[in-house]
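Exercise: predict the fold of this chain.
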Amino acid sequence: MIYITQLIYIKEGQETVFNQFENIALPTILKYNGRLLLRIRPEEGTFIEYHIDKPYEIHLVEFDTEKDFENFKEDEERKKFLHLKEQSIKASILIQGVKLQ
């Protein structure tokens, strides 16, 4: 099992376009043995301390294998809508990890 945490930074005024992309990308995760565990949109009062820009959203996703994650990224239907991602996302930070017992 691999875990992906993504901090997503949106271009101002592009929230609707971002949501259009998410409506396509998030269901695609299931096709590749993945699960969206958390989708958080933090508000100003939820930050206790920070030393980076505050993200618009935070996603936590798990995939059964690294190959499943790679297949998700290469999904042809998802690729058709990458222009929405490029139009709406200023930057993102992707953190890959494993669950510690």
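Check your answer against the key: Helices lie at 15-31, 66-73, 76-79, 82-88.
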